[in-house]
């Protein structure tokens, strides 16, 4: 079917439900409506899915236009199997709360780590701060 | 100046009256000044006016603030606390707290969360319409601007029936206020780079040239029957005449519908009709940005040399058999009829700079289009389609938003992608992939050999190798311009300096080099010799100053130096056996050593000295050109010559007269000798030699007979020549030896002697002598004149 094996072309993915992972870590699920040569995407009826542990929550977002360079990966969702997951869907508030908690624990762990390193005279620059400069 | 509550209050028509009224009211007071600074000044902030206007719009949708949970905000707005509200609104644009996120809030409102049904589009999360309808009420007025308008449009649009081939060209383009600026490029209603929309209809082009704020939608092109649920791209349309071969159910009577753009391209731009074809046409079909611009360029740039390829790669019919042998492309085909033929003939030719599609790729593209069409045709009940496909089709049918992206646009994207696969050197650009596929193919070939099973069709990525063309940069020339306009781009950066490269040929360069080297060498040798000369002169002084014992040593050194000088003069390079060619010495040494050379000869020993004149005489012909210098050398030469033995004299004479050593039959005229005689130096030399010889003869009577014979011969030659040459041609010798007459008288009879005397009569000295002689000889007659 694919007349250009080895290439990545999104033409056949149009009008199908996709899961898109962005560079900032967000996960979007939506119908791919349009593309261009830079792999900019137009997602329709998009939902942002937040995963924390085994739970996830969906935030409906509407139409997304994603710049191609920000896409890490995307894949088609099999509509029949899409709910066949061990994950548990929760409400938005809950998932947001969970996310916040997760962030917090992560930050604290990071802080401890940095402190421990500092005590030993080492310093590892944070990856996210590197990006800024 | 005038306070208005709303736009409607602006008295557009009453302007004139109002101003007139103002003027009439009070002429003394400066109205403008008063309005600005005086009592009439109205401190009306335009921002406030704007706010008020905004309020009017906000009033329409019902708004409730979720934050505060009440209508406080609305009241505040109405009260007119503009600035604070503005700041708040702005801050709301940036949502940090998720609780402020309208999407989340909206979603929260939709509790309880319904279980999404598998595979169904009607889950509450997905069905935005229901959600929106429910939560319309509690939403903020301020939040509205952040939410796209379309979302509100969604619920209102009734779900459309299975209209896959819905006319999506109804998508209205936003209104653009445009003003035609003379001389500026044509205003594009559609920005460059947007995917192709649809074909332009000729009647529409007029609009673009004079763009107006109101956008006029293009009329619909004739629709094709329903089975083809997609736009017919020009590619497909072009293929229509040939489609009968493939069993296209398309009525063959329908002529290919081509936009004027395509037609113009096909005809190579030859038939440019005013009003029909314009650059703005391309605005309508921006999808073919590559080719139309390429087509336009040849028109714009008249100076462009090279073939104007009818750049219609996208319009080639590829459904037919592989392209036949290609006749050279015709630039101006007679009409639209045979244009397809022309196109097909273009097939294998393509611009290697990858702005056009490789034919293989194009073929694939068309095949795929065909496949898609077939798919749509066999929507229901194709046996080979799996359940997956059927469900997919099902969804597509039910999905009202399907096919938002037109097939044409998809083709456009895939065309770009295929173009990117073209490379001039696949192994360079994509080494690992090429190798990988080679291995795969080898494996499969091996398998096939063994198994002999059905040949699986191996889909291979086609990375066609595009030939690399050397593009000679031809500077772009604009028609109608004065002078040269510089246009620089990444491919032809501008010249910084107008430097012209003057490259000489190899031979010339080497010759020049040789000459230069020789001169240098000569100069070096001259320098050395001169320094040696100075040293030798110094020896005299040292000799006097030094003690007895050291004198022999000094003498030896002196000798040695003289030898080296001599060698230098001979052109003998240190380390070489043979002296280098004479001309080197003669041409360069003597001219340069006018003053310096003279003392040298005095130091040279006899045999050394003899050699030099001999070599000089041997090269006299070449020296004859250098007339100025040689006379200076005459005096030292004469000194030398007067000390020469007879043998050398004879040989010298012979050399001078260019006689072979062994006696040969004398030629009637000797050109060499003639030249010598005509030259001052030569003549002088000759005469000196002769006199010397005479001296020798007269003094030394015991010479050998052979020598004598030779001498006689030489003498005869000389005299003969002297007689032969007319007097006028004879050069004036610098000095004439005194004993010449006696010399001549010995060999020549009186008559000839007379002639000789007359010839040499220029020198009064000789004449006197001659006359005296004549008298003595008893010539009768009167005075000699």
UniProtKB/TrEMBL annotation, chain A:
Task: Determine if RNA-binding is one of this entry's keywords.
Answer: yes
Show where the Sm domain sits. Answer: 5-80
Bilayer-crossing regions: none
Q: Which GO terms describe its cellular component?
A: Lsm1-7-Pat1 complex; nucleus; P-body; ribonucleoprotein complex
- Predominantly, its location class is cytoplasm
Tell me which Gene Ontology terms the entry assigns under biological process. deadenylation-dependent decapping of nuclear-transcribed mRNA; histone mRNA catabolic process; mRNA processing; negative regulation of neuron differentiation; neuron differentiation; RNA splicing; stem cell population maintenance
Q: Where is this gene product found?
A: Cytoplasm; Cytoplasm, P-body
Where along the sequence do coiled-coil regions lie?
Answer: 93-120
The terms under GO molecular function for this entry are: mRNA binding
Q: Which top-level group of life is the source organism from?
A: Eukaryota
Q: Which SUPFAM superfamilies match?
A: Sm-like ribonucleoproteins (SSF50182)
Q: Is Acetylation given among the entry's keywords? A: no
Keyword annotations from UniProtKB, A to Z: Coiled coil, Cytoplasm, mRNA processing, mRNA splicing, Phosphoprotein, Ribonucleoprotein, RNA-binding
Query: Quaternary structure?
Result: Interacts with SLBP; interaction with SLBP occurs when histone mRNA is being rapidly degraded during the S phase. LSm subunits form a heteromer with a donut shape.
Protein family: Belongs to the snRNP Sm proteins family.
In its UniProt entry, what is this protein called? Answer: U6 snRNA-associated Sm-like protein LSm1
Species, as recorded: Microcebus murinus (Gray mouse lemur)
Q: Its gene? A: LSM1
TrEMBL record, chain B:
Q: Which UniProt keywords apply?
A: Cytoplasm, Nucleus, Phosphoprotein, RNA-binding
- Which residue numbers delimit the mRNA decay factor PAT1 domain? 474-560
Q: What Gene Ontology terms describe where this protein resides (cellular component)?
A: CCR4-NOT complex; cytosol; nuclear speck; P-body; PML body
Q: Which region ranges are annotated with the description Disordered? A: 1-25, 315-344, 360-400
Q: Which InterPro entries match?
A: Pat1-like, PAT1_dom
Instruction: Give start-end positions of Low complexity composition bias.
Output: 367-380
Tell me, which GO biological process terms does this entry list?
deadenylation-dependent decapping of nuclear-transcribed mRNA; P-body assembly
**Compositional bias (Basic and acidic residues):** 385-400
Q: Name one GO molecular function term.
A: poly(U) RNA binding
> What compartments host this protein?
Cytoplasm, P-body; Nucleus speckle; Nucleus, PML body
Q: What is its main location?
A: cytoplasm
Q: Where is the composition biased (Pro residues)?
A: 324-337
Query: Which family, according to UniProt?
Result: Belongs to the PAT1 family.
Q: What is this protein called?
A: Protein PAT1 homolog 1
